[in-house]
């Protein structure tokens, strides 16, 4: 590990934080916004199993379920207050997403909702007022539900045109103000759970991996077309892909487990970035199709040329944890899951309250793997610790556990940069408390700023600075030199 005193990052490093529209904005049906897939997903630890059931049909049932993300943290009405707090911390960048259904309520319209565009223009201008670089994710689990129900999500090639239209509208509007963009959030998450990023559920063929690979192909083409549009609009614009990245270790030295971890690494960590960064399907693609019992997706004339000529400029990725793989003797290991991954517990690591294994060194491993493979800049656009925070008798939130988590990961980031990795920036997840994607809870908190809301949407919505707020402010002010 590096000495704390030597942990200084390069000038221009993009320190900041990250959120997603569907988890913080609220106002889910206000000002012409349509219903998104995220709006139909209920609160609770059984959230994903409900969505994965054959009966799930994208309908909202207020009598049966609770939907905290309908209110979020009311960022839609309080963004000026929130951006001011980010500026007080010294943010250089703020990563957020544009809710597709706020611009095109159903997704297949020709003309956009001007009220939605105006909201994001105000949000962007508020960032720029404080010298904060907006980092925009075009699609962050916020597909209009109409596209999932009527068109069966991304397995339908028509979505390429709808997404291209949506992206062209927001790029034409904001490219002169926003340099950094990403197309699809955690595009590889569909390997485990396609409802979020592909809009596929059981009734629309989620269990058939042929549909998932077809959906990916359509997303790859759409993403490449967006890169083309962006590069034609602005010479210095940067468009990245975005994925989950997690080291997948063999549980032991058995070669069978090593091979299984290699296969999972290719399928989960490399496949989507291989296509988007290199511009072509990898040589192991047939191996994946065989492994997942899938047919070759339909590829139209011209698709491969589009992929080849419009590769992304950088790799954005989320890093929270690692996972161990054991296919030889399950009796020797306990199952583990987290961040849309399944595996077994690594006996050398501790876990968070939600069972996500904490592995700071794994971030250095990940950065080196990605840099060695692609040689394009990296951008850590999510990283953080979900935990239950308590307000003490003095009205303070002393989240030392979060500081410890982030500090260790920042040290690993710096170590990887000394290894030779090119890292653009770091935007920890949930810089302000928001509704968790995995469980729909407020009690799973990530932020530097506490929001007074419970899992049922009750509370004052007051913003309270945590101990980590002041710590991160010092980290940014010293460019990483002060971590204690």
Question: Characteristics of this structure?
Answer:
hydrolase; alpha/beta; TIM Barrel
**Number of DSSP helices?**
15
Low-pLDDT segments: 1-5
CATH superfamily: Glycosidases
Q: Mean pLDDT, as a whole number?
A: 95
CATH class: Alpha Beta
Biggest beta sheet attributes: 8 strands, parallel, barrel
Q: What is the spatial order of strands in the main beta sheet?
A: 1-2-3-4-5-7-13-14
Helical percentage: 25-40%
- The CATH architecture can be named as Alpha-Beta Barrel
Counting DSSP E segments of at least 2 residues, the number of strands comes to 16
Distance between the termini: 15 Å
SS content category: alpha/beta
- Cα radius of gyration in angstroms: 21 Å
Count structural domains. 1
What's the CATH topology name?
TIM Barrel
Shape: globular
Strand content: 5-15%
Protein name: 6-phospho-beta-glucosidase
GO molecular function: beta-glucosidase activity
Active site: 382 (nucleophile)
Family: Belongs to the glycosyl hydrolase 1 family.
Give structural notes:
The protein has 484 residues and is of the alpha/beta class. Helices cover 38% and strands 14% of the residues. The N terminus is likely disordered.
Write the topology of this structure.
Blueprint: E1 14-18, H1 21-24, H2 47-51, H3 75-89, E2 93-97, H4 100-103, H5 114-129, E3 133-139, H6 145-151, H7 158-174, E4 180-184, H8 194-198, H9 209-233, E5 238-244, E6 248-250, H10 255-278, H11 285-291, H12 303-309, E7 314-318, E8 323-325, E9 335-338, E10 341-344, E11 350-351, E12 357-358, H13 360-374, E13 378-382, H14 400-419, E14 423-426, E15 449-451, E16 463-465, H15 467-477
Parallel strand pairs: 1-2, 1-14, 2-3, 3-4, 4-5, 5-7, 6-8, 7-13, 13-14
Antiparallel strand pairs: 9-10, 11-12, 15-16
Helix pairs in contact: 3-5, 7-9, 9-12, 13-14
